[in-house]
Amino acid sequence: MTGTILCVAEKPAIAKAVASHMSGGAFQLSNIPGNKYVKNYQFTFNFGGRWGQCSVTMTSVLGHLTETEFGSHHRAWASCPPEDLFDAPVYESVAKDKVSIAQNIAVQARSCRALFIWTDCDREGEHIGTEVRKQALEGNPRLEVKRAKFSNTERAHVLQAARQPIELDERQANAVAARIELDLRIGAAFTRLQTLQLQTLLSSLTDKVISYGSCQFPTMGFIVDRYFRVKNFKPETFWLIKVIHVRDDIKVNFSWRRVHLFDRAVVTIMLERCLAAKKARVTKVNERPTSKWRPLPLTTVELQMMGSKYLRMTGQDIMKTAESLYTKGFISYPRTETDQFDKAIDLKKLVEKQVPDGSWGQYARGLLDGNFRTPRSGRHNDQAHPPIHPIAWVSPTALNASEKKVYEFVVRRFLACCSEDAKGKTTEVEIQYGEEMFQAKGLIVLEKNYLEVYVYEKWESSQQLPVFQLGEEFEPTEAKINEGKTTPPNYLTEPELIALMDANGIGTDATMADHVAKIKDREYVGTRTRGSGRSAVTEFIPTSLGVALYEGYNNIVSAIPGCPSLSKPFLRKEMEQRMREICAGTKTRREVIHESLERYQEVFYLTKSRIEILKAACQKYMLGS
DNA sequence: GCAAGGTC
């Protein structure tokens, strides 16, 4: 035996899974003083190569160990002008509630020859790895430090990762360090500025914190943006030609290729030309197989979007529920960007676990009996976690109402991924009538396949079209003008908001729901229900404070070309891009912090000198509220 | 009394 190796994972669940695989189940478990979640696992493992047979102590942290804060001179709000926070010194220290975890690592490191870091293989994981390394080296400065590269906790994959350790990615860790410092400085500076300025303006704001965050504000911005589009909407009248033809007792509605026009006179002339031509000619008859694709493997963003659409839960509730299902071992890790399954995962074995279920067990059986298909692969892979999938079957009686809903969704989605696409047939008839083109479509669903188990999506046969021959001419039963009005867009719903955040790089899969909850808590936005019963959806409406902040910041920068508003996602996107440059090695942490601070400082001083504009917006919308 | 990101 050649010494002991200390292994540290990002969370207890990973430590447990990895320890189980490496030890073959034969480990000694011990608690650590001061924390009930973190455990130490002791066993032996043959790493092969230069490491050989070693004792192993496997433990974990609970996410980040440290926090970054201003020094005591700058902590009180009145201690300095807010702009000082852009260059006041910041200090990194072990968070109070993590001290015992940090000590455990330092103590264990003393008797070890090497440290293997098993944090998630994503950006934050690399940074957490450097935090772990620092603690371990404090216990034992001679420690050799390696990093395990793994993207799931499948047995063979874990063993392979243990035997071929690599190095921490310092660049990714540096990118995160830059993000941490920037978020703190910018968030604190703007929050203090606007809170102190606006609190004294209106009595309704006296004891409110009016926080600014590079994710909070753009999230609020999406909601206000939509609100103004709804509010400023002017309906317009349009006209269209509708052609109806009855054949074999089937009434066929042909829709106009131009959809509609906004000039009644023009549409009238076009209809007259159609009627003058008397006969319509069939220019296209198309009958072809069609399919509705089964869904992609489940990511966090998709879970939240689908969940708030179909399960009537908020993104935050869905995530909380998914986390509890995960800690109980029923589903895989719920925070993932990956929408492709690794080949090494035995999907059929996971399908088999669902056979006992009363609702979808039969369907799972069918997959095993020959209906199984390899899931489609999406284009995302975070290299840290597999798509969300069920790990074990659980009786519905063992779950509460929310857990039941989320678990059922995860299972049905998984089974749908492993199924055949739905199959159908579309018929398309195109006619020329006068100078105008019209079209009718019919759909027959032939095989529902995945839709049998994925009950959230609908795909139904439409009315069947009668037979039309290519080139035939007929006189339509009726042709007339219909009038309509354009309708305003709806207020933003949660799935739409999550999609916008995702597309604009606002927040991560783990934090999006938190940002939404935060701006509600800050009273920048509220929610209400649109519709009723099964079709009810929750929509977001800004408060007068939200509208005032949005408009105030837009007005502050509007006269300055190239100066983006704080309510738009642009500055955050730019910061994200710079972080990627650190990862690519084209920029350093110092350069990025400097550049990003300059960008935000420009807006800050502009806001400070034009603070009356922000105040005016608050007075405009909030007086009397 | 400030952020966003991990995780319980």
TrEMBL record:
Keywords for this protein: DNA-binding, Isomerase, Topoisomerase
Catalysis performed (reactions): ATP-independent breakage of single-stranded DNA, followed by passage and rejoining
E.C. designation(s): 5.6.2.1
Chain ranges of the Toprim domain: 4-151
CDD domains: TOP1Ac, TOPRIM_TopoIA_TopoIII
Any one GO biological process: DNA topological change
GO molecular function: DNA binding; DNA topoisomerase type I (single strand cut, ATP-independent) activity
GO CC aspect terms: nucleus; RecQ family helicase-topoisomerase III complex
InterPro entries the UniProt entry points to: Topo_IA, Topo_IA_2, Topo_IA_AS, Topo_IA_cen, Topo_IA_cen_sub1, Topo_IA_cen_sub2, Topo_IA_cen_sub3, Topo_IA_core_domain
SUPFAM superfamilies to which the protein is assigned, alphabetical: Prokaryotic type I DNA topoisomerase
Domain of life of the organism encoding this protein: Eukaryota
Function: Introduces a single-strand break via transesterification at a target site in duplex DNA. Releases the supercoiling and torsional tension of DNA introduced during the DNA replication and transcription by transiently cleaving and rejoining one strand of the DNA duplex. The scissile phosphodiester is attacked by the catalytic tyrosine of the enzyme, resulting in the formation of a DNA-(5'-phosphotyrosyl)-enzyme intermediate and the expulsion of a 3'-OH DNA strand.
PANTHER family per UniProt: DNA TOPOISOMERASE 3-ALPHA, PROKARYOTIC DNA TOPOISOMERASE
Record-stated family: Belongs to the type IA topoisomerase family.
Full protein name: DNA topoisomerase
